[in-house]
Amino acid sequence: MSLLKYVNSCGLNVIGCCFRSHRGFIPGPVSQKDDGLSTEQHVSLDTSFMGNECVIVKNGTRICGTGAALATADVVQDKCYFEMKVQSDGIWSVGLASLNCDLNKLPLGNDGNSWVLSYDGALRHNKVALDNIDLSVAEGDYMGCSFDHVELNFFHNGKNLHCPITKIRGTVRPVISVDDGCIIDVFFDNFVYPPPPGFSKLMVEKDLI
Question: Are the beta carbons of 189 and 74 closer than 8 angstroms?
Fold first, then answer.
């Protein structure tokens, strides 16, 4: 798929904005202030931590192109949940990664800095296929992720796939990767499927204090 088609699919209005070779060409949402008091910060995809060929639009909630992007917040709370929608079919993966993850190198899970489930049902970390499940995800389907610092679990249209990834170490953030025409919408709040009991949206650390 051409870059121009990606631009049209992703919903960019200004064609010239897409022809870039550096990170951060589309700014993500910033925290708002009201009468000098900070309001809750909204988590999105981070244009400072994304692959060089990624395109992030819709205020940091849609990713297309080729590569991966991290969320704007580390997982610091005890139990968090996030969700993605397959807007256009292709190659994707979803899970957790550290800031040291190479977001240009696909597939994710081929280094020690990412733990993901891929479109083909493979769970990968550090070049190891941890498991391979029977997974059939169509356009319009939702994938959810819950993490409690013990297990990373995955959900397909609200159903637990019972294929947890464990032994995740260090500071991590949600990560999404796309390739081969895939377009993903990611949700860090306002979920279509409710999180598992006890889990909630990803919070920015300062909002937890």
Answer: no
Strands 91-97 vs 128-132: parallel, antiparallel or unpaired: unpaired
Distance CA 125, CA 150 (A): 15
Angle at 36 (CA atoms; ends 33, 40), nearest 5 degrees: 40
Report how far apart, in Å, the C-alpha atoms of 190 and of each of 84, 134, 156, 158, 186 are. Answer: 11, 28, 17, 14, 11
User: Which CATH class for the 3-208 domain?
Assistant: mainly beta
Over residues 76-88, the pLDDT tens digits come to 999 999 999 999 9
DSSP 3-state assignment of 24?
coil
Q: How many Å apart are CA 146 and CA 204, to the nearest integer?
A: 16
Q: Give dist(CA 149, CA 164) in Å, integer.
A: 12
Q: Which residue has the tokens 């993966």?
A: 93
The pLDDT tens digits of the residues spanning 10-50 come to: 554 433 333 333 333 344 443 333 333 334 689 999 999 99
Enumerate residues 6+ apart whose C-beta is below 8 A from 30: none
- β-pairing, 183-187 with 62-71? antiparallel
